[in-house]
Structure formats: C-alpha cells, structure tokens
C-alpha cells in the first residue's frame, strides 16, 4: 500500500513503524473472514482492512472524527487478522498507533470519558478492585439483571500455596483484577508446579502489566505501569534467582512479551524490558508434558483458547496437549479462532457486540456437551461464566484437581 505520511509524523519512530506496516498491506481482504466485529456488524470500516484505511488517512493528515474513533473503538484487538494475513501485517501495533493519534485529535467527552477514566483508575488497583467487587457481591441480589450479570458471583478460595522449597524457582504475575476475581488460579498454578519440582513466587508490589490502561488509550500511563512492574521484578531477575516469569493470564502474557518493543524508545528501561520479555512464558510453556501422568479418565471439557494466547502469543495446542495427557477428553470447538467478546474492558464498553460474540462462542463451546469449559485468561473466564450453561474455570484449576489424585503433594 502506497503512503504519503504527513509532516507531523513522517520522521518519528511511530511514523516510520506505521509506514513499514502499511506498505506490507495489499488490501486483499483475507482478514475480514476472521474479524469478529466485521462478522457481527458487516461494515467494512469495522474490519481490519477498513480500519487500516482509516488509520492511513489519519497518518496522511486527513481530518478524523468521532466516527473514525468509533470504528477503532469497535476493534477487539484480538489479532486474528495477523494470524490470517498472508503478508505479515502487524495490525495490532498499527491500531495502537492509530488509536493514539485519533485520541489526541478527538478528545472524549461526557459519559464515555468518565467511564474510561474510572476503569483506568479502579481496575489497576488490586486492593480497591477486590473491595469493590466484595461490596458488589453483597448487593448482587438487589441489582437489576443487566448490572447483576457484570458482578462476579462466589469467589473460590485460593487454597494452599506451597512454600518455596525447590532449586528451580519462577516468578508469577499477581495482576490487577485476577486476585479479586479468581485468587485460586495462581494458587493452583503454584501447586501444580510444586509437584513438578518448581517453586512459584510472587514479587511484592507487582501489579498491573500495563495492558489495561494502554488499551484504554492512556498509553503513557500504561507504559508507567510497565516500568513499575519491571522495577518490582528486577531485583530477583538481576540476581538470577528465577529462570522464568510465568503468566497465568494470557492477556498479560501477550503484553509483557512485547515489553521490549513497547519500551524500545526508553533508554532507561529498554534493556531491562527486553530481558523481562525474554523471560516471560505462558503457564503451559513451562509445564513439561512428559512430567504429567496419564492413564486416568478425567472428564469431558471444552477449551476456549483466548485470542491473546493463540493470536497474540502464537501459542497453540500447548494447553490442549497437556490436558489430554492428564486424561481429559477435549470436545471439538467450531470457529475456535474467533474471539469470545471479552477483550479486556471491551465487554464493558461495547456490550452489544461483546454479548453477541459471547452467545456465538458459548454455542460453539457447548456443541460437544462438555462437563465444564476451561480457558487461559481471566477476562474470557468471567465474560463466558456470566452466561455459560456449565462451569467455566481456568484450565490450571482443572489440572490441579487431577494431579491431586495422581501426585499427592
């Protein structure tokens, strides 16, 4: 695609990157077949091809409007288009650049601005979020149906977290919303890894990975969160105490693995960001499949692979193979590449589209009549859980229960 960027961005790092990405796009339209928002809305401007055109025009200096902003807002950033694209267009990075540009030129107003600021202020603070969700659960019976669906129900207790006792040690991200919504996930991961000879530890003050505020278009604030997380982890990394940084939320993993790129122009953090990104692994990547015992039927489940796992991190089949090794029967899932509609705060900001995508995803997940649905990201888990006909859990919790029977602690 030929471009002629405007003077204000042509010679900037973002301008050079955007131009390189745009020149790879041949406008073939293959991406429309795997774009969730296009599947629901049918508008080419709500497809990657259409959004690339809008971003190109903005970068060339054309006027942008609230309508431009709306089409970019409707993108889930699922990055399925990147998996589909035959030309290797890095759409996710381009849409970040485009959103940042449009945000600066089309200020948000009124309720939209208020909601986004509240989300960016509350969700990144684990203690505040946990307290507010606790109040919400108490008031849940009194809430209207639409609001009640947004409030999580009972939170499973975390259970025991084994004390560090192994020579092999790994860090795990505590995160921002996961401790309040499902503290059992990291504890289950710690128990599984402990049985396999690995101690899992959390670092003090290691909170939000930065994805939340960055994707709400508070991009510099998101980078501040990234720097704070690097600072929290760095002493243990610098001393060589940990061999990997484990992600139990694939959304966080997709972001932390890109720290080297996201902080590439920060000389104070660039090298450390690259080191952190190199150490970061999805939970499934650090569990040796050969270390898992087989031979016991563990039940029939459907696995929802989050977009941030299969498209963002390009990790496919790792969770499924480990669940099958442990004795689970995995049902076939139609259109497994399509998004469930969660996409971080998307389900709160675009509830109609998110709700339609959830309905389609749950229909596909339920076709094989699973006893439970498992996934690898807290956002997908809570989004699906609010309307699923069967329990929805993190896959590591299901594996933990099986290993408890096979390999007692």
List its traits:
409 residues; alpha/beta; Fumarate Reductase Iron-sulfur Protein, Chain B, domain 2; Rossmann fold; 3 domains; 4-stranded parallel beta sheet; 8% strand
What can be said about this structure in brief?
The strands form two sheets. Strands 2-1-3-4 form a four-stranded parallel sheet. A four-stranded parallel sheet has the order 6-5-7-8, with helices on both faces. It has helices spanning 7-10, 13-24, 36-41, 48-59, 66-73, 80-84, 91-105, 110-122, 126-139, 145-148, 178-181, 184-195, 211-215, 219-238, 250-256, 259-262, 270-279, 307-312, 318-325, 346-349, 351-366, 378-385, 395-406; strands at 168-172, 198-201, 244-247, 280-282, 299-304, 328-330, 372-375, 392-394. The chain is an alpha/beta fold.
């Amino acid at each position: 695609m030929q471009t002629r960027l405007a003077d204000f961005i042509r010679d900037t790092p973002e301008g050079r990157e955007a131009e390189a990405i745009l020149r790879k796009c041949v406008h073939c339209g293959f991406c429309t077949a795997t774009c969730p928002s296009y599947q629901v809305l049918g508008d080419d401007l709500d497809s990657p091809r259409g959004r690339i055109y809008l971003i190109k025009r903005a970068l060339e200096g054309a006027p942008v409007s609230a309508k431009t902003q709306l089409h970019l807002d409707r993108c889930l950033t699922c990055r399925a288009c990147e998996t589909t694209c035959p030309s290797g267009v890095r759409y996710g990075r381009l849409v970040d650049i485009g959103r940042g540009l449009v945000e600066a030129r089309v200020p948000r107003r009124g309720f939209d601005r208020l909601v986004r600021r509240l989300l960016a202020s509350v969700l990144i603070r684990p203690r505040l979020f946990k307290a507010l969700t606790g109040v919400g659960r108490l008031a849940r019976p009194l809430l209207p149906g639409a609001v009640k669906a947004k409030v999580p129900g009972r939170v499973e207790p975390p259970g025991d977290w084994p004390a560090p006792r192994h020579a092999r040690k790994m860090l795990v991200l505590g995160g921002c919303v996961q401790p309040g919504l499902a503290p059992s996930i990291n504890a289950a991961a710690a128990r599984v890894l402990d049985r396999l000879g690995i101690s899992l530890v959390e670092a003090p003050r290691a909170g939000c990975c930065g994805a939340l505020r960055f994707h709400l278009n508070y991009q510099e604030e998101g980078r501040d969160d990234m720097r704070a997380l690097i600072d929290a982890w760095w002493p243990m990394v610098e001393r060589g105490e940990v061999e990997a940084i484990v992600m139990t939320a694939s959304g966080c993993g997709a972001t932390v693995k890109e720290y080297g790129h996201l902080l590439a122009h920060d000389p104070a953090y660039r090298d450390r960001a690259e080191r952190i990104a190199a150490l970061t692994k999805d939970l499934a990547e650090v569990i040796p499949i050969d270390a898992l015992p087989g031979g016991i039927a563990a039940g029939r489940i459907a696995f929802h692979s989050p977009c941030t796992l299969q498209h963002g991190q390009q990790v496919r089949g790792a969770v499924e193979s480990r669940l099958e090794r442990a004795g689970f029967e995995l049902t076939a899932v139609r259109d497994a590449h399509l998004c469930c509609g969660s996409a971080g705060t998307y389900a709160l900001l675009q509830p109609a589209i998110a709700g339609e995508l959830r309905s389609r995803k749950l229909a596909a997940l339920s076709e094989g009549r699973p006893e439970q649905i498992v996934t690898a990201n807290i956002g997908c888990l809570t989004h699906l859980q609010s309307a699923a006909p069967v329990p929805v859990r993190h896959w590591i919790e299901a594996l933990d229960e099986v290993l408890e029977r096979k390999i007692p602690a």
